[in-house]
UniProtKB/TrEMBL annotation, chains A, B:
This is Kynurenine 3-monooxygenase. It comes from Chryseolinea lacunae. The keyword Oxidoreductase applies. The chain crosses the membrane at residues 6-24. Catalyzes the hydroxylation of L-kynurenine (L-Kyn) to form 3-hydroxy-L-kynurenine (L-3OHKyn). Required for synthesis of quinolinic acid. It catalyses: L-kynurenine + NADPH + O2 + H(+) = 3-hydroxy-L-kynurenine + NADP(+) + H2O. Belongs to the aromatic-ring hydroxylase family. KMO subfamily.
């Protein structure tokens, strides 16, 4: 298709860049405006990249724009969780079936590939340009750069400018826009495990590491250079919290007592802890996402906490769904935009809740024998009935044809059934002789 | 007590003025900054005043500052709801026991009394001054007037500047402030029933009139001049909605078919409908309410929909509770502010939900025979056991010693018991012989 329609995208992050690429491939003229400098010009600090978990939903979109293979090559497969106890004992729990994995990938590396891909498709990127104003009636964007201002008109404006979106702020300023921001009591701080000799990995490479400590946790994801990026998720306030660790001695003692095997691998712990910011974690929702010809998408429309590893994947799925609707409705934006938001909202609400729920699973339950037994029984159910019983984590992470809202609803049903199973006596020794077929039959019931 | 502490209040509405008066009486130096002009200078359009329902919680605060009697004299008691059917049939439902009533009072009239009262106590009011910036660290307020700006420092700043509070906006700009705004699908429009000959009331004077129409409703409250202020609560969109009434003919036909007895009393209906704005209805929540020495209060902290008639009463109760805490803690603001928000938040959350629930009751259930029977049984329970069974409406409206959150919790318990009662066969004819004592006993159970 050829069109003279001109689309503005605010935000050159992964979602904005991917959407630009999708739209350029459809034949649109696309300009992307980004508040920050071009991240390709910055010196990337080797081994200090922030990594994300890329999974099936995200990969499907990348495949559609032709970048899947290139990105798969720089990603590190993580086949399961590896849990570290206080005593340094290691246990592991696969994410799915044999051959299913999520991918640790550098956020900035991924972003660069997407920007380059979009540019190759004719997208114009404009960096250091701040959205100062959006006129939702006239579909104009007022941009600030070096103190100067310019106003540009478009056929549509898409805000992919993240949780603190300027486009959403303009939307919110109009009447009857629902909005919420909910912070959790935990913040996070990034820490670092450097590579061993010759770029070797000092922990199991192909896994997401978790140090579950009930009310908080640390995790680590592998980087291609052999290092791991660790994230401590920790309460802001309280007896054991960011606020309670006041002195160097407090910090070192806490880590030595709580994560002894990790501390041994963290030579710069104290420096990292003191230098790296403590950041907050928020769920943001808004609705509608559309006014006239302006839309918000990705984190700008639905920022979620990171505990399901789905924030970016959900944003990428937004792009794929929008592109699909443009296909179906012959690029009639007046039809597509309202349809997109009403269809997609329930799914992003679902993943927002699932992400909150998964924090409890990660920091507490993965260290719990009953929980591991439950996972084992569900894995067997899935093995025996691969279509009728797909564990919720797998539906969310490995199945891009099951909507988030379906995964949530089916997962609730599974939970009720499994709650009953878990009440059975001597289950740890008898679970293999459960009537699995009857359990699956309960899934078909209303 | 004498103090040299200097308090700024943003907003000279009823809550800001009342709080100013409370604090001036405690000996504080108080300045109130209001964006709008002094409403005392405006010509009040006779009979066109917007009225509010003032009830026990609000009156208690007014009594504490010595203005209760003056305001009681200009209020019109409303002893119950009078329902108008489409056929013009009238039925009524008392609000509480004999002698209990809510009060229709002019918002602007009440506001003037409070401003005058506060001024008499030494409060300085500054009109036409917009809050441009709040520095939460330094407790300074930057105010704009006629293009000029000044920055003033205070010992505390209190934002009583309503649902779209500038002080709350400053608070929200900081990290880790939860916030939500939720619009309902209905908007409202004010209409008017003028007085009859010699200022006579053309509908029953001492009542709140409701035209319940299931998915929407109109209400009317009496004014001292014999007129009634009507409010149509109506969906924005849909088959029967503000959007669907397009022409003069649509409007007239809709009112004639839907509110025939009211239309006969509304000579300016068409003009009012076309001239008066259609406004939206929102629930707003935020937390924390306090950062350092800055607090939000009233609608700025917890705007609710109007269906329980408690918005202003809740704001007045905020002032009373804050004043009480200042008493108890010897004006130690560092102790009082955090205590105020943590104590009060659950109560304002409760009234927010109760107000949403009451819309369904008002627009739909008050026309329902089962609902009226339920109310009759509860009234009998209250008569027989005046302390053990107080209907929820009475707890909220007539009992200032029962917290909103308690009223909500007790009301839920009552509802479960009454749901069981309502399942009994032939209840309409047999309810008088119910075992009332046993029902009350269930309220004592866990």
């Amino acid at each position: 298709m050829k069109t003279d329609k001109h689309i503005a995208i605010a935000g050159a992050g992964p979602v904005g860049s991917l959407l630009a690429l999708y739209l350029a491939k459809r034949g649109y003229r696309v300009d992307v405006f980004e508040r920050r400098p071009d991240l390709r010009a910055e010196t990337l600090q080797a081994g200090r990249s922030i990594n994300l978990a890329l999974s099936t939903r995200g990969i499907r979109a990348l495949d559609e724009v032709g970048l899947g293979d290139a990105l798969r090559r720089v990603a590190i497969p993580m086949h399961g969780r590896v849990m570290h106890s206080v005593q340094g004992q290691i246990s592991s729990l696969p994410y799915g079936k044999q051959g299913q994995f999520i991918n640790s990938i550098s956020r900035s590396g991924l972003n660069v590939v997407l920007i380059n891909g979009a540019e190759a498709q004719g997208v114009n990127f404009h960096f250091n340009q701040r959205v100062a104003h959006v006129d939702l009636q006239k579909t104009t964007l007022t941009l600030q750069q070096n103190g100067g201002e310019k106003k540009l008109a478009f056929d549509a404006i898409i805000g992919a400018d993240g949780a603190f979106s300027a486009v959403r702020a303009a939307l919110q300023f109009t009447d009857r826009v629902d909005y919420s921001q909910d912070y959790i009591d935990h913040g996070y701080k990034e820490l670092h495990i450097p590579a061993g000799p010759n770029g070797s990995f000092l922990l199991e490479k192909n896994a997401l590491h978790i140090w579950p400590r009930e009310s908080f946790m640390m995790i680590a994801l592998p980087n291609p250079d052999g290092s791991f990026t660790c994230t401590l998720f920790f309460p802001f306030e309280g007896a054991t919290s960011f606020a309670s660790l006041k002195t160097n001695e407090d910090i070192v003692a806490f880590f030595k007592n709580t994560f002894p095997d990790a501390v041994a691998l963290m030579p710069d712990l104290l420096h990292d802890y003191q230098t790296n910011p403590t950041s907050s974690l928020v769920t943001m929702k808004c609705y509608p996402w559309v006014k006239n010809k302006t839309l918000v998408i990705g984190d700008a429309a639905h920022a979620v906490v990171p505990f399901y590893g789905q924030g970016m994947n959900a944003g990428f799925e937004d792009c794929r769904v929008l592109n699909e609707l443009l296909d179906t409705h012959h690029d009639d934006w007046d039809v597509v935009l309202p349809m997109f938001q009403s269809q997609r909202k329930q799914d992003t609400d679902a993943i927002a809740q699932l992400a909150l729920d998964n924090f409890i699973e990660m920091r507490d339950l993965v260290a719990d024998a009953d929980f591991l037994l439950r996972k084992k029984i569900e894995a067997r159910l899935h093995e025996l009935y691969p279509e009728q019983w797909i564990p919720q984590y797998s539906m969310v992470t490995f199945h891009d044809t099951i909507r988030y809202s379906e995964a949530q609803a089916l997962g609730r049903k599974q939970k009720r059934i499994m709650d009953d199973v878990m009440k059975l006596p001597h289950l740890a020794t008898t679970w293999q002789s459960l009537d699995f077929q009857q359990l699956v039959r309960r899934m078909q019931e209303a």
